[in-house]
Amino acid sequence: MVTNTAQQRKSRPPLHFGSRSRANDASDCEAQPGEHLAARMHLAADLPPHRGRGGAGAGPIALASALLRRENHRRRALAGGAVLASTLLLVATPRLRHSPALHLFADMRNLLGVPNTLNVLTAYPLLLAGVPGLILCLCGSGCFGVSLRWEALGWFLFYAGNVAAAFGSAYYHLKPDDDRLIWDRLPMMISSSSLLSILVIERVDERVGLSCLISLLSLILVSSACERVLDDMRLWVILNFVPCIAIPAMLFLFPPKYTHSRFWFLATGFYLLARFEGLADRKVYSVNRYFISGHSLEHLCFAMVTLILTVMLSFRNIKIARDS
Hints:
This is Alkaline phytoceramidase. Helices cover about 70% and strands about 0% of the residues. It is mostly helical. It has two domains: about 25-45 and about 55-90; about 100-315, Rhopdopsin 7-helix transmembrane proteins, CATH 1.20.1070.
């Protein structure tokens, strides 16, 4: 009886506290190769090894969790860098005053008694493209398979901005002036800011994306006040063109959470084309022999962006599960 107890004690593996010898590491590698390999992977990644209750399977789980935390920190750092760069750009840019020439568009034809006819009519495709998406958003996030609640809010604001832009832009172009300008700009700025925030929520982090959405919506109101009260358009210009840089960069830097991500690239192409056509209003109008102006084409391209993203939402599925 005593002999059997002594043999059992000899057969038990010794307990180790603190540092371990190479011989013990070698024996552990033979007994539990999965745990030892996971610990070495932790050390290679400059992360502290973790011994969980699950034995050999706890190491890879801890490694994945630590790498996920590191990736989230990197994403938040990039988002903070983008905010800092925008702030520095605002400070470094000289004051931009409002010009009366802003209301002088290339195509000011009066057809069938409608002033600025094509600029007015081309605003309504935004309504046709935005209403179906807005209805599906009101039916619930399950219609589009959106997995995060703040992402659903972003899509609602995006489609609501498009619908409001159709009426606001048409109202402005019937009689372009300073008083009506806000009804043309405000809905489109809400739409583009929501689109950028949606991409941040999807590919970076939900909390970061929500903060981005709230910040951008607040800055939109501030930019409108600065333009009317201080006669300064700097913030408005930055808010309009930051998505032109941030959206393509995020598409290349961060992996997609959903399938059918190629639609994002197609929609981004039309978005950038719309911005270019708006800037080259008169040049585009003269190139196509005064058939349609760049500003009218800008409206149509924005409608294409909405249509493409609606198709994407209708077919996509979750590709990478991520908890925010």
